[in-house]
Write a structure and sequence with these properties.
about 140 residues, mainly alpha, two-stranded antiparallel sheet, membrane
């Protein structure tokens, strides 16, 4: 996409909505292991933020904004998700993908709950984000 065909209004909206959509995706990610949400839907929301940026600007600017190649996001997410499954095996001899919970006291926030389902969801988040952005960049390259 070239910048001459995009709307100034779309560019302003994209700059405004991108951080809000990314923040909402983190919210969905963090609440997903207890309530509806999780890594998949959070990854889709984050991908939609970058899709909006891609439509408003161009693929090169969006790639710079992400900062990593999409394949690294997919590979890293897959590695994180797989490793989260081994924590229960290593810690207590439980089956693969057994949930393990840690409770950490954070001054000012209280007790923070960290778990292997959350780590798994972070991996899924990165895989979905990497897959969708790879698809979007491939489609944008076809247009050029």
């Amino acid at each position: 996409m070239n910048n001459t065909s995009t709307s100034l209004i779309l560019q302003v909206i994209a700059r405004f909505l991108l951080p809000m959509l990314l923040l909402f995706s983190v919210f969905l990610l963090l609440r997903g292991h207890d309530e509806p949400g999780g890594g998949f839907i959070a990854g889709l929301v984050a991908s939609s933020a970058f899709a909006l940026h891609l439509f408003a600007f161009d693929a090169q600017q969006t790639r710079r904004l992400i900062g990593l190649d999409s394949s690294y996001l997919m590979g890293g997410g897959l590695l994180i998700s797989t490793l989260s499954g081994f924590i229960g095996v290593l810690k207590s001899g439980s089956p693969f993908l057994s949930a393990v919970w840690w409770y950490v006291q954070v001054p000012g926030l209280g007790e923070l709950k960290i778990s292997t389902p959350l780590i798994f969801d972070i991996g899924v988040y990165l895989v979905v984000l990497g897959m969708v952005t790879t698809l979007l960049f491939s489609l944008a390259q076809l247009e050029e």
